[in-house]
C-alpha cells in the first residue's frame, strides 16, 4: 500500500509552487529574451546609430548597422552556450534551488542593463545586457530540467519533462505579442518591452525560499538523508512512512553514487555506456536546431503575404503560428507521458522531413501558381505541428531522463550547450545558405530530420523513458 501511494503521488501545492518558480521565473523569462528583439529591430538599430554618434563620434552605414545587429544576436547565443556549459557544475556545486536564484539574479541584471542601455542610448550597456540574458538563458536550459525532473513524482516525470520547451515557447509568444507596435513595440516604449520580464522573474524569486531543494541532490550529492526525506515528504504531500518505495530507490542510488568517483567529462567519455548515451543525446540535440525550424519561421510572414494577406495580417498570422507552437508544446506533455519516446520522436522527425519537402516544393511553385502560396501556408502549419509534438520538447528533457544522478548534470549541460552552439551556427549560416542555394537549402534540413529520425528509432529504448530501466537504457547502441 505504501509503495502504491508513493507511485501514485501526483500534484501537491508544494510541487506546483516548485515547478511554477522554474517556469515563470526562469523559463518564460528566458524564452522572452530569445525572441523579444525581432519586432523592434529597426528601432534598436537607430538607437545603436545614435549611441555610436554621441559615444564615439561616428555615423554607422547600413552595412555597419547589420554587423552591429549580428553581434547583438551572436553575444546572446555565446552567453547561452557559456551558461549551458557551466550550468551542470553550478547546479552540483550550490544546489538546484540556489542555482535558480542565481539565474533570476542574472536575468534581473540583464533587464536592468537593457532598460538603461536603450533609455540612455548606450549600446555597450545594451550589449552587456544581452550577454547576461544569454548566460541566464543557458543556465536555465540546464538547471530547470534537472530541478523539475528531480522534484517530480514518477507518474508525472515524463509529462513535466516538456515544461522546459513549453516555457520557452510561451516566453517567445509573449515577446511577439508585446513587441507589436500597438502594445510596447514603439520607440517611446521599447525600454519597457526589454525589461517587462522582470515582473515574473522577481515574483518567482519571492516564492523560491518557500520551495524545497531537490531531494535527490540533498541525498546523493550532499549526503543529507534527513533533509532529503523531509523535502520529498513535502513534495509528495505524504508522510515518510508512505514513501518507502521511493525512499529505498533513493538510498540505493545514493549507495551506488558513494561507491563511484566524481563524474567528470573525461570519466563520462571513458565510460562506454555513458559515452554511447551521450553521443545519442548530442546528435538529437544538434538535430533539433538543424531541423529547419528557424528557417521556416524566417519565411512565415512573407509566405502569408504571398497567400493574399496584407503585411500586418501576415505578421498576425505569424503570431498565430507562435501561439499554435505554444499550445502544441502544452499538449506535448501528455503525449510524452503516454506515447513511447522512440516512436514519438521518430514520427515527429519524419513528419518534419515530409513537411519540409512539401514546403520547399510549394516555395518553388509560388512564382508560377497562386495556389502554391496557400499550400505553403498549410505545409508551414503542418511543420509546426510535427515539430512541436516531439522534436521540440524531447531534446530538452532527454539528458535528465537518460542519465542517473551522478553524471546527469554534466550530460544535461552538454546537451543544452549543443543546442545553443547549433543555434549559433544556424543563425550564421542560414542567410549564406539561402543566398547561395535558395529553396534548395531545405534539402539539408530535410536530411538532418531523417538522420535524427534514424538515431531516435535505432538508438533509443522502446518504452517511454519514464518506464525505462537502467538495463534498457544501457541497451542504447551506437
UniProtKB/TrEMBL annotation:
<feature type="transmembrane region" description="Helical">
    <location>
        <begin position="98"/>
        <end position="118"/>
    </location>
</feature>
<dbReference type="InterPro" id="IPR003663">
    <property type="entry name" value="Sugar/inositol_transpt"/>
</dbReference>
<protein>
    <submittedName>
        <fullName>Solute carrier family 2, facilitated glucose transporter member 1</fullName>
    </submittedName>
</protein>
<keyword id="KW-0813">Transport</keyword>
<dbReference type="Pfam" id="PF00083">
    <property type="entry name" value="Sugar_tr"/>
</dbReference>
<dbReference type="InterPro" id="IPR036259">
    <property type="entry name" value="MFS_trans_sf"/>
</dbReference>
<keyword id="KW-0812">Transmembrane</keyword>
<keyword id="KW-0472">Membrane</keyword>
<feature type="transmembrane region" description="Helical">
    <location>
        <begin position="369"/>
        <end position="388"/>
    </location>
</feature>
<dbReference type="InterPro" id="IPR005829">
    <property type="entry name" value="Sugar_transporter_CS"/>
</dbReference>
<dbReference type="InterPro" id="IPR005828">
    <property type="entry name" value="MFS_sugar_transport-like"/>
</dbReference>
<keyword id="KW-0762">Sugar transport</keyword>
<feature type="transmembrane region" description="Helical">
    <location>
        <begin position="344"/>
        <end position="363"/>
    </location>
</feature>
<feature type="transmembrane region" description="Helical">
    <location>
        <begin position="437"/>
        <end position="458"/>
    </location>
</feature>
<feature type="transmembrane region" description="Helical">
    <location>
        <begin position="124"/>
        <end position="148"/>
    </location>
</feature>
<dbReference type="GO" id="GO:0015149">
    <property type="term" value="F:hexose transmembrane transporter activity"/>
</dbReference>
<feature type="transmembrane region" description="Helical">
    <location>
        <begin position="192"/>
        <end position="211"/>
    </location>
</feature>
<feature type="transmembrane region" description="Helical">
    <location>
        <begin position="278"/>
        <end position="304"/>
    </location>
</feature>
<feature type="domain" description="Major facilitator superfamily (MFS) profile">
    <location>
        <begin position="19"/>
        <end position="464"/>
    </location>
</feature>
<feature type="transmembrane region" description="Helical">
    <location>
        <begin position="67"/>
        <end position="91"/>
    </location>
</feature>
<keyword id="KW-1133">Transmembrane helix</keyword>
<feature type="transmembrane region" description="Helical">
    <location>
        <begin position="316"/>
        <end position="337"/>
    </location>
</feature>
<dbReference type="InterPro" id="IPR045263">
    <property type="entry name" value="GLUT"/>
</dbReference>
<feature type="transmembrane region" description="Helical">
    <location>
        <begin position="160"/>
        <end position="180"/>
    </location>
</feature>
<feature type="transmembrane region" description="Helical">
    <location>
        <begin position="12"/>
        <end position="32"/>
    </location>
</feature>
<comment type="similarity">
    <text>Belongs to the major facilitator superfamily. Sugar transporter (TC 2.A.1.1) family.</text>
</comment>
<dbReference type="InterPro" id="IPR020846">
    <property type="entry name" value="MFS_dom"/>
</dbReference>
<feature type="transmembrane region" description="Helical">
    <location>
        <begin position="409"/>
        <end position="431"/>
    </location>
</feature>
<dbReference type="GO" id="GO:0016020">
    <property type="term" value="C:membrane"/>
</dbReference>
